Amino acid sequence: MGYSLSLSAALFGLTGLLRSLGGLVWGPLSDRIGRRWCAVYAAAAGVVGLALLFAARTNPNLFLLTAFILLFGVGFSGISPVYAATVADLFPGRNLGKTMGLLDQGFGLGAAGGPYVAGLLYDRMGNYQGTLIMLMVGMVAFGAALFAAASRKRPHTG
Fold first, then answer.
1. CA gap 34, 28 in Å, rounded
2. Domain range spanning residue 62?
3. Residues of the chain where predicted confidence (pLDDT) is lower than 50
4. Beta strand spans in the chain (E)
5. What pLDDT is recorded for position 81?
6. Is residue 123 part of a domain?
7. Which of 12, 77, 107, 138 has the fewest CB atoms nearer than 10 Å to its CB?
8. Strand, helix or coil for residue 105
9. Around 10, how many Cα atoms within 13 Å sit in the side-chain half-sphere?
10. 96 contact partners, CB below 8 Å, separation of at least 6
11. d(Cα 135, Cα 45) in Å, to the nearest integer?
12. What pLDDT is recorded for position 123?
């Protein structure tokens, strides 16, 4: 988009810091308003953030890029505590660690394969539009799945 590499790296590096802030926001908020609504709001923040990134491609300006970083970093990236709390609500007990470990395999595979797939899409399309669309669809699917899971009643364990 014409920004220097150092500015780009600094802005995107902020997403890790903002993820920590998001965790401090979403975790307690999910205890107050419920896990499912936090999942919806966080997914919406991520999708709106990516839409702003799309807009920044055609109208490069620092405001749109910063808004993307904030919405994506604090919004969607900070959803981890809600995800973990939802799993703990649904599967309490001594197998919670195994359940979380198994579910986190999917995150690990995505983190490992995501950059490779993004590179392939870039090589084929010449831009990151396909990758961003894939991310948006993934965020909506994750938010919907977490909403549905959080809506379930915990099974009676007797």
1. 10
2. 26-151
3. 156-158
4. none
5. 87
6. yes
7. 107
8. helix
9. 7
10. 87, 88
11. 13
12. 93
